[in-house]
Design a protein that fits this description.
Elements lengths: L1 H6 L3 E5 L1 H4 L1 H6 L12 E5 L12 H4 L14
Antiparallel strand pairs: 1-2
């Protein structure tokens, strides 16, 4: 469902909080089938956004045999 929404240029947001609140969770049960909602999914058109900033590849990928640089000062 998420991939189909993305393919159709829709934004999606999974929301679990309503399912975690007992009073609301009771309202989300189908009394006939005895089934309940596992996740609420918000679907719609989002505002256009620019690309997210990316770290340089050399910050996260080291050539084989290189020592780990995770302790270097930033």
């Amino acid at each position: 469902m998420l991939l189909t929404a993305t393919w159709k240029d829709l934004a999606t947001t999974p929301i679990s909080q309503p399912v975690e609140v007992p009073a609301i969770r009771r309202l989300l049960i189908d009394p006939v089938a005895g089934l309940s909602v596992q996740m609420v999914l918000r679907i719609g058109y989002g505002r256009p956004a620019g690309p997210t900033p990316r770290r340089p590849l050399t910050d996260v990928l080291l050539p084989a045999g290189q020592p780990d640089r995770s302790d270097r000062a930033r």
